[in-house]
Task: inverse folding
């Protein structure tokens, strides 16, 4: 290749195969895709070593994309189960899989993903360092933190969440701010603890240029992690969150100077009335870099239903600028999700993404709804199942409650408004009580 990264190619007037694939999928001119990548407003995570990748573009002018978090833990170490979740997620249309494995042979699982999975693959190297080195946190060296990033890049990971924005200065501000729920980011808490235990600067901040060299070499997209994301609506928009965001904006500019693509990670828990403003602040500070949000969860009181609280926030966030939604399952805050939890989380997130795409006027978004409403008007049940976001569930619901007549359902029976208006417009009698 005569370019280093997708951004480097774009800035040199080259339309890559990945850009062409994204253009076809989005129904946008490839030259427009190239321009947006060159500006940093669109990222195409595509590690050179991920040979089976189907590339996707991430940017608020494109279809909103979905990320699914999976991976093994000490309490749930069955790789086959996690791979089943991966395959189910891809089957259901998730564009991205993030491997958050924190126990076991993490490299084996990661390499299997990049060898066999066509979805965009992301990781959080901070988690893996603790597993890989298998020693006390305080004993992990600055070199070892950087080396684990290089290992993930070599393994073909397309994007990495790295918590570069929490440095010694922001850590001191955090300690003085007396947050309600402190730091809820797992990676952020680990690197904060390491800084406190060793007295050293965050190596990902201190050695940021080395980090960028690795990303440039393998074309890894840098997902700048938000260690200080709010873990409760009470902490939303506080000084710790905003100060870190300012640092992430500065780091974005430095990454673009090296032709490294960037995604910015965002909240977290946030009340409805703050979401739009938060999206605008992010776009301003980070100069339009794609925004990747966890939720946001709009209330703290719905354990077991947090896929719904996240979908509400995600729809609003994506409408006003977020381009990448990290799914949340019903198991959030409670346990590692099952296959069914993963499915529920994906559907909720896809609903949020599609609702936002309609609101933003994304090309082709309304066509899906147009076709579904047409099938409903015609009482074409098979077509409805085919178009449904979860056709399997829709088909099962109808089968579990069989109506007397095929042109009705058990909710309204012969009082069905659609059926009766169709009959009247055809000049037929309406036989409600016959």
Result:
């Amino acid at each position: 290749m005569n370019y280093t990264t997708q951004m480097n190619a774009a800035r040199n007037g080259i339309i890559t195969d990945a850009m062409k694939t994204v253009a076809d999928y989005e129904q946008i001119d490839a030259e427009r895709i190239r321009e947006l990548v060159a500006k940093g407003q669109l990222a195409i995570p595509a590690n050179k070593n991920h040979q089976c990748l189907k590339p996707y573009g991430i940017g608020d002018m494109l279809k909103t994309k979905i990320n699914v978090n999976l991976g093994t833990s000490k309490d749930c170490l069955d790789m086959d189960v996690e791979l089943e979740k991966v395959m189910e997620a891809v089957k259901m249309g998730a564009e991205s899989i993030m491997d958050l494995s924190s126990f076991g042979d993490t490299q084996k699982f990661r390499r299997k993903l990049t060898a066999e999975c066509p979805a965009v693959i992301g990781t959080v190297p901070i988690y893996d360092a603790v597993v890989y080195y298998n020693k006390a946190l305080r004993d992990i060296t600055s070199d070892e933190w950087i080396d684990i990033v290089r290992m993930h890049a070599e393994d073909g990971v397309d994007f990495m969440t790295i918590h570069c924005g929490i440095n010694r200065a922001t850590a001191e501000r955090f300690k003085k701010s007396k947050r309600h729920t402190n730091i809820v980011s797992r990676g952020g808490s680990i690197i904060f603890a390491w800084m406190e235990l060793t007295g050293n600067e965050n190596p990902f901040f201190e050695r940021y240029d080395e980090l960028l060299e690795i990303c440039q070499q393998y074309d890894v997209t840098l997902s700048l992690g938000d260690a200080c994301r709010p873990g409760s609506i009470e902490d939303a928009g506080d000084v710790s969150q905003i100060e870190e965001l300012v640092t992430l904006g500065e780091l974005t500019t430095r990454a673009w100077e090296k032709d490294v693509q960037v995604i910015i990670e965002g909240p977290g828990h946030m009340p409805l009335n703050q979401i739009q403003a938060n999206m605008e602040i992010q776009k301003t500070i980070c100069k339009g870099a794609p925004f990747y949000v966890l939720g946001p969860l709009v209330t703290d009181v719905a354990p077991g239903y947090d896929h719904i609280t996240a979908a509400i926030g995600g729809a609003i966030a994506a409408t006003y600028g977020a381009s990448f939604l990290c799914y949340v399952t019903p198991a959030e805050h409670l346990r590692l999700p099952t296959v069914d939890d993963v499915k529920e989380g994906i559907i909720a997130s896809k609903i949020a993404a599609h609702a936002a795409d309609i609101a933003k006027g994304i090309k082709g978004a309304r066509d899906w709804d147009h076709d579904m409403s047409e099938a409903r008007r015609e009482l074409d049940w098979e077509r409805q199942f085919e178009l449904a976001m979860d056709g399997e569930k829709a088909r099962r619901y109808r089968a579990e409650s069989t109506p007397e007549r095929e042109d009705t359902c058990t909710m309204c029976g012969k009082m069905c408004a659609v059926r009766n208006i169709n009959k009247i417009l055809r000049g037929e009698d309406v036989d409600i009580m016959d």
Q: What stands out?
A: The first helix runs from residue 6 to 11. The first strand starts at residue 65 and ends at 70. The CA atoms of residues 41 and 59 lie 6 Å apart.
